[in-house]
Amino acid sequence: MGPWVASVGAVYPSAVHRLLACVSCLAHMVFVGFTVIGGFLAWLVPALLVPHLAAAAWGGRMAITRAACPLSRIENWARRRAGKPQLHERGFVAHYFEGKVYPARWARKVEVAVGGLVVSSWAVLAAR
Fold it and tell me: How far apart are the first and last CA of the chain?
């Protein structure tokens, strides 16, 4: 075997881990987006209500307990194996949103506002 085999073997795992980190990040973005706006989507597609209730329950639990999310664990594992820095110690939302989309000191206020948005989407749906 030529020397290129060793170089491909050394690079390939890193590329796979970078891809896995990107896929887990994308899955997380979709989940967070659905958690925030899924109640409004249920106005158009009522079948989305039950999945949104589950997503909102999970998201609310994560916000209240600050538990470690399985997707964050997967992304951190893949990032570590790819030689990339890990997510913020408080997880995905703190890493990608706090300080970028809104000031970090607003974290709890934003969580409460998002919770209110979700509940209001359900209230409107119930009133229909």
Answer: 69
